[in-house]
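User: I'm writing a short report section on ligand binding and want a predicted complex to refer to. Could you take this sequence and 5-O-phosphono-beta-D-ribofuranosylamine and write out the structure as tokens? A short remark afterwards would be nice.
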Amino acid sequence: MSPLPIVVLISGTGSNLQAIIDAIAAKKINAEIRAVISNKPGVAGLQRARDAGIATHVIEHKQYPDRNAFDAALRDCIDQYQPQLVVLAGFMRILGDGFVQHYPGRMLNIHPSLLPEFPGLDTHRRVLAAGHTQHGASVHFVTPELDGGPLLVQAVIPVQANDTAESLQQKVHQQEHIIYPLAIGWIAEGRVQYENNRIFFDGKPLEKPVQIPACNAY
Ligand code: GRF
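Assistant: Sure. The structure tokens for the complex follow:
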């Protein structure tokens, strides 16, 4: 099978991008990152991409008069690479409905909580404030509802008495680096289908996300 062509969108550090680059290099997933696009110049993730020999682009939202103009420029840039999958990896910009609907079942996001709990920002502090005993990360398909699309896989970690927002952030991040390549690998293997807002995994409807306990590798 030819590698799954993907484009990755970032806004910052790009540690999830790095995990995907590494998983491809280690031949754990059969994918090819055709380009990395950032809405912020100078971020570390762009250097990670360049170091891996991947084409990079910066499309600064500030340079466009409105969301539609930015979304159109971003879409044109992505589409020249003809990806089968668009991967949001710490992309901190809300995308318009038209943009999202342009990639039905072809855009993934990773979010640092066990969605549908704690959509939005500042998840680690909110989990602690709510006294939850479990936390984690979720990979989901992107729909117009923010952090609300169908869930594919989650990593679950226990919240311990001495955890802080910082310690949770670190632990969750580590799990993201495992489940994001895992999810992309499943898609590359053709194990995941998406129809009318529903995920089919190995030919069966996925009623709830695949949940994996915290681990060090896959
Ligand atoms: C991750 O925590 C991800 O869940 C969130 O943004 C962060 C990106 O981190 N969407 P990085 O840039 O991949 O290191």
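A remark for your report: The mean pLDDT is 96. Residues 165-188 form the longest helix (24 residues).
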